[in-house]
Design goal:
- By secondary structure, the chain is α/β, with parallel strands linked by helices.
- The chain has one domain: 2-enoyl-CoA Hydratase, Chain A, domain 1, CATH 3.90.226.10.
- The chain is 39% helix and 26% strand.
- The chain is built from 4 helices and 5 strands; from the N terminus they run ββαβααβαβ.
- Strands 1-2-3-4-5 form a 5-stranded mixed β-sheet, with helices on one face.
- Helix 1 (34-49) packs across helix 3 and helix 3 (87-108) crosses helix 4 (125-132).
- The relative contact order is 0.17.
Length: 148
């Protein structure tokens, strides 16, 4: 497993045969910025390749597990697409969505047990999808918010 310094969104530590993956943007409520979407598939790939890791635990640093998508960061990426003039330029939206889906799929497809130690807020449709993919999760004072 790579050192935590390689990742900007996540902090990773090993305890025996367990990889503890901490969402590490407490000042932003662990809102998922672009680093989340890029780093998660790489982390999950490294976990799959490491036979010493037998279990994965996701947790959040700070008051909340995650307040959801970092609207400002992701919105800036989509703004270019929303103003794109051509179909080719708008294909960038498809590429962004695929990268985001690859991140959530990397957790869903993990062959090792994955636990989310969720505390307080866990907001957004993305996290609902993420948690459905996880085999077990611990809940303490938990709020799931999903707008329909």
């Amino acid at each position: 497993m790579s050192a935590a310094s390689e990742f900007t969104f996540f902090k990773i530590k090993m305890e025996k045969n367990t990889a503890i993956i901490e969402l590490n943007r407490p000042d932003a409520g662990n809102a998922m910025n672009w680093s989340f979407w890029i780093e998660l598939p790489e982390i999950m790939h490294q976990i799959e390749e490491n036979d010493d890791i037998r279990c994965v635990i996701f947790t959040g640093n700070g008051e909340n597990f995650s307040i959801g998508l970092d609207i400002m960061d992701i919105g800036n990426r989509f703004e270019v697409i929303n103003t794109a003039a051509s179909a080719e330029e708008r294909l960038l939206l498809h590429d962004l969505i695929q990268k985001m889906q690859m991140a959530t799929n990397s957790v869903a497809n993990c062959k090792k047990p994955v636990i989310a130690a969720v505390h307080k807020y866990c907001i957004g449709a993305v996290w609902i999808s993420f948690l459905r993919a996880i085999s077990d999760f611990a809940v303490r004072m938990l709020f799931f918010l999903y707008a329909r």
